[in-house]
Write a structure and sequence with these properties.
By secondary structure, the chain is an all-alpha fold. The protein is built from 20 helices and four strands. The protein has a two-stranded antiparallel sheet. A two-stranded antiparallel ribbon has the order 3-4. Helix 1 (13-40) crosses helix 2 and helix 18 packs antiparallel against helix 19. The radius of gyration is 22 Å and the shape is globular.
């Protein structure tokens, strides 16, 4: 893929700040949503603290990967079931922190194994016939979130108005990216989300003036909460760091004894195994975007340690385990800016702005339908990146066709593997998501059929699509 800035390049100060702000907007909605869900599950969590934890965790990841992997780590939804189980069991803040610690330990152990045994087996285990459809599934599995946010604005009521606002946001991003001036092409999400926000505000003001509830799609509650009783905290406030809450409330929750630690390990460690599949798929995808194999350099062992310990850092400060964000990778791909300097700036920006109440209020006020429209572009690009990998595969060879077909059908169809019973939640003790289940089925199918061959001519064509130049006669 053709890049404007490679991983070690440094954009100008002005461009870098705008690129970083664009990254922050792309990852912020989901990063702030997870702690809100956790609060709803009975354990108060501060979205601003989650923002700080994500920024600090990302800085650690960038450091461990030697500034070679340009991706932001944000709050992951994968652990929501584990959070609910440990919260339901009464383990409180320490239960979440210790649980994510076990997940991080799984990452570190796997990373050490890879460091000793090498990562060559990863590429053999996940050739294009497996990695391609898995990467596509990562985007497709998130698609319902994008369309759901557009259809209901994050609520329960279907609305054509919010769909229109979401589509307007998406089309504004498309226009900026394809037909806009140089500034618009570099920062399409800033312009697009800004346009969607303005439209949502205009409709909301009309709705409030006329009493039309359906038009009131932007909530002013974050501003009311911030400025209703004005004080210094309305401008600057210290986020509710998780570790501080853990010490403050240590006597209010169930005792963390040996039995509790074993239970937490059983709840959280299997989730980490599932996350490993997404981690590998994400880095395969990112490798394709930046034209550099991250599995071998800096190495999957380093990316795993960066992700695992970054998750623990994010939890200690901000309540949520982190993961590499597809939204961040899509930003890299669409804008052509793979500079880790930009990712670091975005991380520091998140940490600083987490202390500024007005900024957090603005971000929390962005309607879900606006972010849904943006995510159509973000998640769609992830899916297309996977299809580009599939394009390298000769699907006329049944040895390739069946693994690809199995992964797509099982993943889109929602096949999952559940084991045991969790008395705290009433659900399964361990659940392998459709992404993990599809990958397992695909790998087994691949082993049965044997290795097919990749269509190198198609692969080279895809890799060089952005580099074709026309002759004078062709022009």
């Amino acid at each position: 893929m053709k890049l404007i800035y490679d991983v070690y390049d440094k954009p100008s100060k002005k461009e870098n700040i705008l690129f970083a702000f664009q990254q922050m907007i792309a990852i912020m909605a989901a990063t702030l949503l997870v702690p809100i869900i956790m609060t709803g599950n009975g354990l108060p969590s501060d979205p601003a603290a989650a923002l700080f934890g994500a920024g600090l965790g990302t800085l650690f990841y960038i450091f461990v990967t030697k500034k070679k992997s340009p991706v932001f780590l944000g709050s992951t939804f994968t652990f929501l079931g584990a959070y609910a189980a440990s919260i339901g069991a009464g383990y409180g803040y320490w239960g979440v922190i210790i649980g994510v610690g076990f997940a991080a330990l799984v990452y570190v152990i796997v990373a050490l194994v890879i460091k000793v045994a090498g990562s060559g087996w990863i590429n053999k285990l996940l050739p294009a016939a497996i990695a391609g459809p898995i990467v596509a599934l990562i985007g497709l599995s998130l698609s319902s979130t994008a369309t759901g946010w557009m259809s209901t604005n994050g609520g329960d009521t279907y609305s054509l108005i919010t769909i229109a606002v979401g589509l307007f946001t998406f089309l504004a991003i498309v226009y900026c990216s394809v037909r806009g001036n140089s500034s618009m092409k570099m920062f399409p999400f800033i312009y697009g989300i800004g346009a969607g926000y303005i439209l949502a505000m205009i409709l909301t003001l009309i709705g409030r003036a006329t009493g039309a509830q359906a038009l009131q799609i932007l909530s002013f509650q974050p501003f009311i909460d911030a400025f209703g009783n004005f004080s210094i905290k309305s401008i600057v406030d210290i986020p509710g760091f998780y570790i501080i809450n853990a010490f403050k409330t240590s006597g209010q929750y169930a005792k963390i004894d040996g039995a509790a630690i074993v239970n937490l390990a059983l709840i959280y460690a299997p989730i980490a195994v599932v996350e490993l599949a997404q981690h590998t798929g994400d880095h395969k995808n990112l490798s394709n975007i930046i034209n550099h194999d991250l599995i071998t350099d800096p190495g999957l062992d380093k990316t795993l340690i960066g992700d695992g310990i970054g998750s623990l850092i994010g939890t200690v400060f901000g309540s949520c385990a982190n993961t590499t964000y597809g939204e961040s990778m899509a930003c890299v791909a669409i804008t052509g800016n793979a500079s880790t300097h930009t990712i670091s700036t975005a991380s520091i920006g998140c940490m600083i702005l987490a202390f500024f109440t007005p900024f957090v209020a603005v971000i929390e006020s962005i309607p879900k339908c606006v972010m849904g429209g943006a995510c159509v572009a973000l998640y769609g690009f992830i899916a297309v990146s996977g299809l580009q990998l599939v394009a390298k595969v000769d699907l006329g060879d049944n040895r390739n066709l069946y693994p690809v077909a199995a992964i797509l059908v099982c993943g889109i169809g929602g096949l999952s593997f559940s084991f045991g019973h969790n008395s705290a939640t009433g659900g399964s003790l361990i659940t392998l998501t459709s992404l993990a289940a599809a990958m397992i089925v695909g790998i087994i199918t691949r082993k049965i059929t044997g290795e097919g061959h990749e269509n190198e001519s198609i692969g080279k064509m895809v890799d060089t699509m952005g580099d074709v130049e026309l002759t004078e006669d062709e022009k």
